[in-house]
C-alpha cells in the first residue's frame, strides 16, 4: 500500500471527485425535464433549448479556460470556475420560466466550460506519460458514474423536498469540493510539500521545465495543424454523448413506455456501462503503449474500436421492439463510445505538453459545438417527425465518419515544447494497419 499511495494519486482522486460532481450538476436537468415539461408547459424544442443553453458558453470557454490554466495555473482557474458552476446550479432552483432557466444554464456552461481543459492541464506535471491514459480514463469514468447515479439521487431529493431543492443541494456540494481543491491541490509537484524526491523521479518531468511552465508564447498555428482532426472526431463523439446525457430519459419514457420509477434504473444502466468503458479505454491504451512503445497504435486502436462498436450497437437499438433489449443495446453502444474518451483527452497531453490546457480546450470545443446543435436538432426532429429514428440515424452516421477519420490522428506529431516520449516501433500486420 505504501508503494502505491502517492501524492499524485491523491491529486487524481481529487480530480475524479470533480468530474463526478460536475457531471451531476450538468445532467440533472435531464432528470427534471419531464417535470419541467409538465409544470411549465415546455415543448420538445424548448426543452432542447434548455439542454443546449449550457453548451454555447461551454464551447466558448474551452480554449479560453485551457489557456488561462496554462498561463496562471489550474489551481486558481479551477477554483474560480467551480465556484461559478456551483452558484449557477443553486440558481437553477430559483428559475421561474424558460428564459430564467436558460440564463442560469448559460452561467453553468461558463463555469464548467473551462474546467475540463484546466483539469487536463493539471495532469501535465503530475502524471507520467505511461499513466496518462489511465488518469484520463478513471476521471471520465467518474464523470459517467456521476451521470449514472444522477437519476436516483435527483429523484430521491425531489420526492423528499422538490425539484428546486435538488439544484440547491447539489450546488452546495460543489462549493464544498471547491474548498477541498484549493486546500489540497498545487500546480506542480515542486510546490507540494508532501511530494518526496522518489515520487518526483517517478513522475519524470524536469524540474526546470515545471518552473517555466507559463513561459513562452502559445504556438496557435502549429497547435491547430495538429489538433483540428482531433477536434472533429471529438465533435462526432460529442454528438452521441449529448444525446445520451440529455434525451435518454425522455426517449425511454416517450418511445419505450417506462414510468418515472423505472427511469431511475434504466437511465442509469447505459451510463454505468460508460463508467466501465471510460476506465477500460484508458487502461487498454496505456497497456498497448507500454507493450509496444507505439503511441499511434495505442491511441488509434481504441478510437477505431470504440467508435465502430458504438455504431454497431446503436443501429439495432433503434429498431428493436423490446424496450429492455433497447436499453441493453444502448448500454453496449455507450460502453464502446466511452472506450474512446480517455484517448481523446490523452491526445492534448501527448501532442501539446505544457500547452495541454489550450490544446484540450481546442479539442473539447468540438464537444461543445456538438452540445449546441445536437440537443436542439434532436428535439426539433422529434417534434417534426414524431419519431426518434431519424435523429438516432444521424448519430450513427457521425460515428462511422469519426471511426474512419481516427486512422489519421497522429499523437506523435508533437509541438516542439512538448516533452519527448519513448521511441515507437511496429510489429505485426494488425499493428501496421492501425499505426499506419
What is this entry, summarized?
It is a multi-pass membrane protein. This is MFS transporter. This protein has 436 residues and is mainly α.
List keywords for this structure.
globular; MFS transporter; 18 helices; 436 residues; mainly alpha; Growth Hormone, Chain: A
In words, what does this structure look like?
The chain is mainly α and 436 residues long. It has a single domain, classed as Growth Hormone, Chain: A. It is 79% helix and 0% strand. Helix 7 runs antiparallel to helix 8. The chain starts with 6 loop residues before the first helix and ends with a helix. The C terminus is likely disordered. InterPro entries: MFS, MFS_dom, MFS_Na/Anion_cotransporter, MFS_trans_sf, Sugar_P_transporter. It comes from Undibacterium arcticum. This is MFS transporter. It is found in: Cell membrane.
Number of helices: 18
Radius of gyration: 21 Å
What portion of residues is helical?
Answer: over 70%
C-alpha end-to-end distance: 41 Å
**What is the highest CATH level, the class?**
Mainly Alpha
Low-pLDDT ranges: 418-436
Membrane topology: Multi-pass membrane protein
Keywords: Cell membrane, Membrane, Transmembrane, Transmembrane helix
Subcellular location: Cell membrane
Transmembrane segments: 12-36, 48-69, 76-96, 102-120, 141-161, 167-185, 227-248, 268-289, 301-319, 325-347, 359-382, 388-409
Amino acid at each position: 500500500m505504501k508503494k502505491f499511495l502517492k501524492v499524485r494519486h491523491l491529486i487524481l482522486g481529487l480530480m475524479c471527485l470533480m468530474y463526478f460532481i460536475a457531471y451531476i450538476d450538468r445532467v440533472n436537468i435531464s432528470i427534471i425535464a419531464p417535470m419541467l415539461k409538465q409544470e411549465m408547459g415546455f415543448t420538445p424544442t424548448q426543452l432542447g433549448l434548455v439542454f443546449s443553453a449550457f453548451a454555447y458558453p461551454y464551447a466558448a470557454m474551452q480554449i479560453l479556460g485551457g489557456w488561462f490554466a496554462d498561463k496562471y495555473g489550474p489551481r486558481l482557474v479551477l477554483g474560480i470556475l467551480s465556484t461559478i458552476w456551483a452558484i449557477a446550479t443553486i440558481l437553477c432552483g430559483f428559475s421561474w420560466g424558460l428564459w430564467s432557466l436558460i440564463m442560469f444554464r448559460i452561467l453553468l456552461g461558463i463555469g464548467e466550460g473551462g474546467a475540463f481543459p484546466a483539469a487536463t492541464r493539471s495532469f501535465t506535471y503530475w502524471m507520467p506519460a505511461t499513466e496518462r491514459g489511465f488518469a484520463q480514463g478513471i476521471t471520465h469514468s467518474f464523470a459517467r458514474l456521476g451521470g449514472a447515479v444522477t437519476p436516483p439521487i435527483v429523484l430521491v431529493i425531489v420526492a423528499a423536498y422538490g425539484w428546486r431543492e435538488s439544484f440547491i443541494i447539489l450546488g452546495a456540494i460543489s462549493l464544498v469540493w471547491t474548498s477541498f481543491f484549493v486546500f489540497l491541490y498545487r500546480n506542480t509537484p515542486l510546490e507540494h510539500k508532501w511530494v518526496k524526491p522518489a515520487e518526483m523521479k517517478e513522475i519524470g518531468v524536469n524540474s526546470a521545465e515545471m518552473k517555466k511552465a507559463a513561459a513562452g508564447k502559445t504556438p496557435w498555428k502549429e497547435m491547430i495543424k495538429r489538433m483540428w482532426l482531433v477536434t472533429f472526431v471529438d465533435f462526432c463523439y460529442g454528438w452521441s454523448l449529448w444525446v445520451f446525457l440529455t434525451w435518454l430519459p425522455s426517449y425511454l419514457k416517450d418511445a419505450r413506455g417506462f414510468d418515472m420509477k423505472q427511469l431511475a434504473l434504466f437511465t442509469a444502466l447505459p451510463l454505468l456501462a460508460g463508467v466501465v468503458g471510460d476506465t477500460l479505454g484508458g487502461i487498454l491504451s496505456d497497456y498497448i503503449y507500454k507493450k509496444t512503445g507505439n503511441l499511434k497504435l495505442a491511441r488509434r486502436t481504441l478510437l477505431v474500436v470504440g467508435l465502430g462498436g458504438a455504431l454497431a450497437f446503436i443501429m439495432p437499438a433503434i429498431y428493436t421492439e423490446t424496450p429492455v433489449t433497447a436499453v441493453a443495446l444502448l448500454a453496449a453502444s455507450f460502453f464502446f463510445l466511452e472506450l474512446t474518451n480517455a484517448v481523446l483527452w490523452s491526445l492534448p497531453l501527448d501532442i501539446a505538453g505544457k500547452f495541454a490546457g489550450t490544446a484540450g480546450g481546442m479539442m473539447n470545443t468540438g464537444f461543445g459545438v456538438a452540445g449546441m446543435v445536437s440537443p436542439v436538432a434532436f428535439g426539433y426532429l422529434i417534434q417534426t417527425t414524431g419519431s426518434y429514428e431519424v435523429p438516432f440515424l444521424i448519430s450513427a452516421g457521425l460515428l462511422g465518419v469519426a471511426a474512419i477519420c481516427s486512422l489519421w490522428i497522429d499523437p506523435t506529431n508533437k509541438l516542439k515544447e512538448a516533452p519527448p516520449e519513448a521511441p515507437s516501433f511496429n510489429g505485426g500486420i494488425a499493428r501496421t494497419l492501425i499505426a499506419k
